[in-house]
Amino acid sequence: MLLLSKLKTTAILFLDIYKMKHKILELYSGIGGMHCAWKDSGLEGDIVAAIDINTVANEVYRENFPDTYLITKNIQSLTVSEINKLEVDTILMSPPCQPFTRNGKYLDDSDPRTNSFLYIISILKELVNIENILMENVKGFECSTVRKLFIDKLKECNFDYQEFLLCPSQIGVPNSRLRYYCLARRKSSKWHYKRKEEIISEPPFESTSLFPLRDILEKTVLEVYYLNDKVLKWGKVLDICYKDSKRSCCFTKAYSHYVDGTGSVFTEMSPEFVKNCYSEANKFDIGSDEYIAKLKELKLRFFTPKEVLAIMMFPKDYVIPDGTTMKQSYRLIGNSVNVKVITELLKVLFI
What's the pLDDT at 5? Predict the structure, then answer.
C-alpha cells in the first residue's frame, strides 16, 4: 500500500509538471524550429517573444507564427529589464555556430559572432525568472572556450544541466545532423532526469524505426531543382539518395550553391542503374562533356525546400512565403534545427 501511494504521488507530480503553463523566450529564433518543437511537444505554455536580427528569417517566422511577439534586433541590445518584464521562465536558443566549425576557422570566443551569446551568459544571473534552458549548437561547441564559460555560468547560477551529442538518425529520422544540446534547470525545480557528468551520446528517450525518403517526396518537382551541367561535372562528390533510402547527409545553408558536403541529392533511378551509369561515365575524363552527358541519364536533382523541411521534421502545414528565393530558403533551413530532436529533449527537460 505504501509503495502504491508513493507511485500515485509521483504520477500526480509528473502530471502537474506536464500541465504547468510556461512562458518561453526564443532567442536566435530563425524560422522557428524551436517554436515548432514546443508546439509538437504538447507541453503547456507559449512562446511569448522571439528575437532574431535576420529580416528574411523573420518574414518566414511571422508567416507561420503571426501571433507571436517577434523582435527584429541584435540580442545584445535586449536589456535585462526588458527580458524580466516578459516574465519568461524558459529560454530556447541556437546561437551562431560558425565560430565552432571548420569553415568558421574555429575562432571560438575570438569570433565576433559569439558576442551575443557571451552577452546572454554575462546577464544570466540577473534573469531572475529563468528556470529552464535548452541550447543547441554544432558538434565542436563542446570543445570550445565558450562552452566552458556557459557551463561555469550555469553552475554559478545554481542550474543542474545535462549535455548531449545527438543525431536525428538515432531517433528514426533519415538524416545525419549531429548536434550538441544542453538542457538546464534551476536546482530549485523538480527534474526527474538522472544527470550524468559526461556528455551523453545516446538519446534519453525511445526511438522509432527509420522511415524511407519516399515518405517525404513531392509528386511534382520543378525543372529548376534538377542538376545542371555545372553541378554534374562534380558528379564524383555527389551523395545520392533513392526512394527507399533511410539516410541522407546533413543539409547546410550552402545546399545547391556548393555540392561537396552540403547535403544529398536524389534520383528516381535504381542503385544498380546509377552504379552502371557511373561505370560508363568514368570511362571519360571527369567533368568532360561526355562524362556530364552520361550522368544526365540519372536525372539527379536537389531535394526541394519543402522536402528538406520534412526531413528536418517541420510540420506539414509549415510554409516558406512566396517571394523567398531558392537560395534564401536553403540558407534559412540549413541554419535551423531538427524539430523532432528538440521536441523529445523538451519532454526530458520538463517532465
Answer: 47
For 94-118, what is the mean pLDDT? 90
Q: From 172, 180, 136, 202, select the one nearest 313 (Cα to Cα).
A: 172
> Facing residues of 4 across strands?
none
Q: How far apart are CA 112 and CA 110, in angstroms?
A: 6
97 is catalytic: yes
> What single DSSP character describes residue 45?
E
Which residue blocks in 175-321 are alpha helix, DSSP H?
A: 229-232, 271-281, 289-295, 305-311
Neighbours of 108 (CB within 10 A): 17
The model's pLDDT over 123-152, given as tens digits with 9 standing for 90+, comes to: 999 999 999 999 999 999 999 999 999 999
Closest CA to 32 of 344, 345, 313: 313
Tens digits of residue pLDDT in 265-303: 999 999 999 999 999 999 999 999 999 999 999 999 999
Return the C-alpha torsion angle 12, 14, 17, 19, nearest 10: -70
List the grid coordinates of 103. 569553415
229 touches 236 (CB < 8 A): no
Helix extents (H) in 124-237: 145-156, 229-232
Outline where DSSP puts E strands in the chain. Answer: 22-27, 45-51, 70-71, 90-93, 132-138, 159-166, 179-186, 240-241, 265-266, 301-302
For 159-194, what is each residue's pLDDT tens digit? Answer: 999 999 999 999 999 999 999 999 999 986 666 667
Mean pLDDT, the chain, rounded, equals 93
User: Full-prediction pTM beyond 0.85?
Assistant: yes
d(CA 29, CA 70): 9
Q: What is the pLDDT of residue 191?
A: 65
In contact, 98 and 110? CB cutoff 8 Å? no
Q: What is the DSSP string of 85-132?
A: HHT--EEEE----GGGSTTTTT-GGGSGGGHHHHHHHHHGGG-TT--E
Q: Given the residues 36, 97, 167, 250, select the one marked as catalytic.
A: 97
